[in-house]
Amino acid sequence: xxxxxxxxxxxxxxxxxxxxxxxxxxxxxxxxxxxxxxxxxxxxxxxxxxxxxxxxxxxxxxxxxxxxxxxxxxxxxxxxxxxxxxxxxxxxxxxxxxxxxxxxxxxxxxxxxxxxxxxxxxxxxxxxxxxxxxxxxxxxxxxxxxxxxxxxxxxxxxxxxxxxxxxxxxxxxxxxxxxxxxxxxxxxxxxxxxxxxxxxxxxxxxxxxxxxxxxxxxxxxxxxxxxxxxxxxxxxxxxxxxxxxxxxxxxxxxxxxxxxxxxxxxxxxxxxxxxxxxxxx
Amino acid sequence: xxxxxxxxxxxxxxxxxxxxxxxxxxxxxxxxxxxxxxxxxxxxxxxxxxxxxxxxxxxxxxxxxxxxxxxxxxxxxxxxxxxxxxxxxxxxxxxxxxxxxxxxxxxxxxxxxxxxxxxxxxxxxxxxxxxxxxxxxxxxxxxxxxxxxxxxxxxxxxxxxxxxxxxxxxxxxxxxxxxxxxxxxxxxxxxxxxxxxxxxxxxxxxxxxxxxxxxxxxxxxxxxxxxxxxxxxxxxxxxxxxxxxxxxxxxxxxx
Lengths: 281, 255
Hints:
Chain A is mainly alpha-helical. Chain A has helices at about 40-60, 70-80, 85-115, 120-130, 140-145, 150-175, 180-185, 190-230, 235-245, 250-275. Chain B has two domains: about 1-65 and about 155-255, Rossmann fold (3-Layer(aba) Sandwich), CATH 3.40.50.300; about 85-150, no CATH class.
């Protein structure tokens, strides 16, 4: 670096005068820790919708291709005023709630069995691996034959869709439970049932709840798909009809309802997590 | 109640871990077991409390457990094993719940052990809010709550920093002086052994056999850091273990 070769054993940097003009140490740490910024997300929505509305009004975006947000909102209000909103929404919610609740409960039971018993695990996991990858919507025609064209086949599709991710989430969550906690329970002579109820399941709850989140998203997707194939009422049927009539404003309104539905379900699960997993923070 | 180990041997598959141990843990005494890493100390403790079945030999409980003892053989674990979703009080109540005690009796036991471990102010705290030393105090309180006949302690201070370890050693010593308990105390720390043990059992490296049993007749109250007799004892134990520890270390490095 410099032309003055230091003598052997001397440290070149030590020659800087004490108290002289030193070079401050450059800061190179920090970053990599995202913090919550709630307003930014809202702002992105507002700006995007405003740009979209402006583009439509200025004629840059053809209303046939993409109707203005105000038109979609108008379609939504029409739907609400005609009383059909509630009819569609209640049909969808009923299917969703029954299918999701049954699928998640059964998944929990089978997943817990697979997590705790070697025989149950050997019996259940190959079956799950074989059936989980099948898109459940491909089974819908079969379900229609088995359970009829009415509610049964739609609920069954959602139920099957929720069941498998729930089984997998539950037994992997149980696998990850800290074994020292279980040994502790045994060392204090807690019964098997008490160990499962008071140690294993609470410890597996974070994994089970994130499985529930996945199951919820899957069930909304399957709900719409099933309703598009054959239903008189339901958000999926409404969207399909709007598409067939090229009523893009109604289509956007329907899609927005689905998005809100998804957000609502996510919010509910977050509330559950805050309630049951408060000890993590 | 005494605990007696007779001709105990244990192997995992073909790996012999313990060979022909004979040992008594007498009532009201702390028996420390030391040995190089991998000598089967922790295995011995799991066998003592019935968390594992010995391959050969047997472990006997001699005499009756004290009245009111809910769980005669009770562990204190190295990594505390507290349920993170329960408060201090909840963690203690967990081990009382299976016994169908009345609410008053449960409350009495919880208040008593919290008082003895000086945790009364932390009743409603969850483990995450506590330091390592406090967590281990909670685990000790939980163990005392079932009024054990023998406390089985598996390196209870090994996960703590050295200052906290000193504090907890004083606490354990104080607990014993106020109300003597019976304990088998596993450690790799010679200082803990000479500070707390009435008897120190030195195990060899794998397969673990008893090399020596050293009796320490200094009362616990007099065993402070500056006691020269303790330093000499610790030195003597170290001489005994040094070669074994070195060989065990090389074994691990080679394997």
